[in-house]
Amino acid sequence: MAEQRLTARALVEEAGPEALTTRSLADRLGIKAPSLYKHFSDKAAVELIAQHLAALADAYRARAVWAFAHGMVILEIHGRFPGGVGLGEAWETGVRAFAP
């Protein structure tokens, strides 16, 4: 079951929580979707794992956005931004990276 969890987590990290479906997880594991039920008691268990991973991804994204913003402000306050780099453009690029 550890392999299935790691694979599910990788799917969420790569493509977002909406990408984690029974079929996508089975495809990534190289098995047919019904075979997942050999590892999980029922569809509800698979969906529960997907929900937990989605919540984890959302919580991590919120913390990552905060860390990005905090780092940018600290660099700006202390005049540590490299010359020639547009501060506004750097902010816009960073914020777009977190867009769903």
From TrEMBL:
One of its GO terms (molecular function) is DNA binding. Keywords: DNA-binding. SUPFAM superfamilies: Homeodomain-like, Tetracyclin repressor-like, C-terminal domain. Residues 7-45 form the HTH tetR-type domain. Coiled coil: none annotated. Pfam families: TetR_N. This is AcrR family transcriptional regulator.
